[in-house]
Amino acid sequence: MIRAADEEGLWNSFLHAPTAPAISQRALVQLYADVAGVAAPRVGRIPTWIMKAIGTVHAGTRELAEMVYQFDKPFVLDSSASEALLGLAPTPLETGAKATVDWWRTQA
Q1: What is the dihedral sign for C-alpha 54, 60, 62, 65?
Q2: Cβ(23)–Cβ(107) under 8 Å?
Q3: Which long-range contacts (CB under 8 A, 24 or more apart) does 46-51 make?
Q4: Residue 95 backbone zone (phi > 0: left; psi -120 to 50: alpha; other: beta)
Q5: Phi then psi for 101, rounded to 5 degrees?
Q6: Which of 68, 76, 89, 97 is deepest in the core (most CB within 10 A)?
Q7: How far is the C-alpha of 9 from the C-alpha of 57, rounded, in Å?
Q8: Helix (H), strand (E) counts: the chain
Q9: CA 23 to the chain's CA centroid
């Protein structure tokens, strides 16, 4: 957004930060496991009806159950128009995953 602030012609427009191609949560978990050199954990899904049932007695789960629609279909953001206007490109997922894993390893 710093780049957009420098260009008056882009003020009062809608821009998206450059975004890497969408992948599934399972694929993202596998990518991080590969980068970290560990086995990928098992990834599962809690059925919506269970989330809603638990939500009747647990506020945190109730709030999560309200957002479950976000996990039923892909959330895809196309930032190509903003990328062209700003002259920017997203960081590849593999690069970001490696930087994140490397940073975590320094936190011990």
Answers
A1: negative
A2: no
A3: 48/72
A4: alpha
A5: -60, -45
A6: 97
A7: 51
A8: 6, 0
A9: 9
Q: Is the pLDDT of residue 45 over 90?
A: no
The pLDDT score that the predictor gives to residue 35 is 97
Question: Could you give the 3-state DSSP secondary structure of residue 43?
Answer: coil
Q: How much is the pLDDT for 74?
A: 77
Q: How many Å apart are CA 26 and CA 37, to the nearest integer?
A: 16
Whether the CB-CB separation of 51 and 61 falls below 8 Å is answered with yes
Q: How far is residue 33's CA from residue 85's CA, in Å, rounded to a whole number?
A: 34
* Closest among 28, 70, 26, 27 to 48, alpha carbons compared: 70
Structural contact between residues 35 and 97, judged by C-beta atoms closer than 8 angstroms: yes
Query: CB count, 10 Å around CB of 36?
Result: 16
Give the closest residue to 43 by CA, choosing from 56, 30, 53. 30
